[in-house]
Amino acid sequence: MSKIIRTEPNPILSKVVEYHGFLFTQGFVARDLSADITAQTKDILAQIDEALELHGTDNTRLLQAQIWLKDINDRDALNAVWSPWLPKGGAPARACVEAKMAHPDVLVEIMLIATK
User: Fold this and answer.
1) Which residues, other chains included, contact 115 with Cβ-Cβ below 8 Å and sequence gap of 6+?
2) Cross-strand pairs, 28
3) pTM for the model
4) Does the CA dihedral 5-50-39-33 come out positive or negative?
5) What is the C-alpha end-to-end distance of the chain, expressed in Å?
6) Is 35 in contact with 64 (CB distance < 8 Å)?
7) Using CA atoms, how far apart are residues 82 and 69, in angstroms rounded to an integer?
8) Would you state the pLDDT for residue 54?
9) CA distance 53 to 20
10) Are 3 and 97 a contacting pair, CB within 8 Å?
């Protein structure tokens, strides 16, 4: 049976769960919640890069993304950061929806499935 690897587990979640070469991430939010949508998105993508690298992979191996926005009108600003971050021809399947966030200053949250 394959081992399940949990990165930074706590009582309610793990940052990343790895199983059979698949990576399932937590929903990443920005560390600086006073930042605008552009800065929050850049910070989240940097955190994702770090998490993927820790597991021996990168954003060329993305399979699926789930993105929640506090305000769907921020979608263009999100995409202005998201699109250049993606490898050419390597966009994952994606959902992007407006949602009530757990904290009022969270403007975007991103969760991914990737592979090694």
Assistant:
1) 21, 22, 23, 57, 61, 63
2) 110
3) 0.96
4) positive
5) 18
6) no
7) 13
8) 96
9) 17
10) no
Residue 66's pLDDT is 98
What tokens does 48 get?
Answer: 């994702």
C-alpha distances out from residue 17 to 55, 86, 99, Å: 10, 22, 24
Provide mean pLDDT across the span 51-64.
97
Answer yes or no: are the C-beta atoms of 113 and 22 closer than 8 Å: yes
Beta pairing partners, 99: none
Going along the chain from its start, the domains and CATH numbers come out as 22-115 (3.30.1330.40)
**Mean pLDDT value across the chain:** 97
Bridge-based pairing state of the strands 62-69 and 16-19? unpaired
Nearest-angstrom CA–CA distance, 70 and 9 = 26
